[in-house]
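Key idea: predict the complex, not the pieces.
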Amino acid sequence: MSGARGGLAESVYEVFARKTRGEPLRHIGYIDAPGDELARVYAWKTYDEENWFEMCVVPRGAVMPVNRTDGPWAANRPGRKDGAG
Amino acid sequence: MSQRAEDELKQKIRKGYILESPEEMTPGYRKAIIVQLTVQADTELMSAPAYWLAARHAPSTNTQVSAHAIIQDELAHANIAYRLLEDMGVSKEHLVYGREPNEFKHPYGFDQPLDNWAELVVANGFFDRAGICLLGDVHRNTSYGPLKRALIKVDMEETFHLRHGEVWMRRLARAGGAATELLQRCVDWMFPMTIEWFGLPDDLKRHSGQLDYKLKGLTNDELRQLWMSSTVPLCESLGLSVPAHYDAAAEEYVLDYPFPCEYDPEEKRWLFEDGKISWSAVFERWKGRGPMNERYVESVRRSRGAVSSWLN
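Result:
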């Protein structure tokens, strides 16, 4: 997706992080990357405004909405074939 | 969609409604936020090559690391703004790689060369402060939830850039002699450059919808005043002269030169002596872009084709 070409084709990853122990894991943003490994690197380098205790990335296509029918994950509702993965 | 739908959305927004997805946007809202985000993303992107070429003049390895940390932040900010646009169906690929250099929407200030360390730190002190005024206002007021959250990071980092600028401006001002003269020359062209950045005065501005949709909270003149309210006292405390002063009776900052006026990019000099010009003449100059426009755009695109072909 993203209109990128060939070996640079990218998909979207959601970025989650928490600042310290005891804090909730928060959705802090998202990045485009051509694969899981680079997604981890790009997330760490892009969202470096805090010294995060924990950060993780999730492919946008893996997030399933429960109650909403709009927004970035709407295409991933079970039964929809146009998933954003 | 009808005017009625636009009016209904504006009314909901006035009551505090926050949009969370592009599907909730009316055509008018979508158009206005795309313009706003394109300017924001292009400005962040074009600051990177401007600062990068200037970072060669860093006086030590430590200062070079700081300058490059700022550049890295700016690229991340650009990436985040383009990503928001992508979710609205606008192609990041096209915006970064598919446009002519003169189609970018960044301010004229980022078409100018930054030729020495003093110009880089004054850019941090002036241009990044303008960024904080503009984006801080968007952060406080925007009705688009994803943008509000994205700006938390941006505001934190722009504040660091501003501090970098102020600390170095202070050091150069204290040094006296050639350093202070150079600093004053930077201020002479970069102060009016930033003033112009905030755009048309309110009494001339045609209605854009950005305020009605609460994409921002302050008008151009209010933002210009906000910028001057911290920049003018800073410069005065450093013994630098600026072409503006506080008018206690009017309770606002007043410019001491004809505004807007013509600029000579080769000489890096504002032609105060030629008097006031029209805003259409200013738009004409902006449209023609400045001396570094093509080089800056080329420098962020340079390796795209080669790397892409290796991987295919």
